Amino acid sequence: MKEAIIAAAGGVLFAMGLAIGGMTNPHKVLAFLDFTGDWDPSLAFVMGGAILAYAPLYRVITRRDRPRVSERFHLPTRRDIDLKLLIGASLFGIGWGLGGFCPGPALVSAMSFGPSALTFTAAMLVGMGGFSLWQRNQGG
Fold first, then answer.
1. How far apart, in Å, do the first and last CA atoms of the chain sit?
2. Distance between CA atoms of 54 and 51, rounded to whole angstroms?
3. How far is Cα 39 from Cα 52, in angstroms, rounded to an integer?
4. pLDDT at position 55, please?
5. Distance CA 124, CA 131 (A)
6. What pLDDT sits at residue 121?
7. In this structure, what is the dihedral angle of CA atoms 42, 47, 50, 51, given to the nearest 10 degrees?
8. Tens-digit pLDDT profile for residues 56-107
9. For the chain, what is the radius of gyration of the CA atoms?
């Protein structure tokens, strides 16, 4: 129960950061991605600030034997680049560039019931579900 409460609090904090940083505004995201037009670099500062806050804490926390509220760290172990990763990264980039949303900001924006956020979130969930079914049928 303690893990769930901490995860929920972290999710709320993350959602607030996305909203305050403007990452839930698809027009701002698309302006950030438009290098040849009216480019808006402000999201680079949001991302840079997040990295500056996260990087030193990551180093300190992962030096512990285990997290405070879990039995072990849940960190990725694979380091190879395979076709699934390349396709997934490409689909992520295409979706981000066309819709102005990526998964986290889309979920936060969907809470406003805006049509573009709801459409993107629905398409994202259908894609995730379709991939899960495909992966299950492939035995992986």
1. 30
2. 5
3. 23
4. 94
5. 11
6. 93
7. -130
8. 999 999 999 998 888 899 899 999 999 989 998 998 899 888 889 988 899 9
9. 17
Residue 37 DSSP one-character state:
S
Mean pLDDT of 27-54: 90
DSSP state, residue 40: -
| Helix/strand/coil percent split, the chain, to 5 | 70, 0, 30
Q: DSSP labels for 57-97?
A: HHHHHTTSSS-SSSSS----------HHHHHHHHHHHHHHH
Residue 82 corresponds to which amino acid? D
d(CA 104, CA 102): 6
Torsions phi, psi for 129 (to 5 deg): -65, -40
Domain boundary assignment for the chain: 2-138
Per-residue model confidence (pLDDT) at position 52: 95
The predicted structure's pLDDT at residue 2: 82
Encoded tokens for 94: 């295409």
pLDDT > 70 in the chain, percent:
99
For residues 117 and 110, the answer to whether their CB atoms sit within 8 Å is: yes
Is residue 43 within 8 A of residue 22, CB to CB? The reply is yes
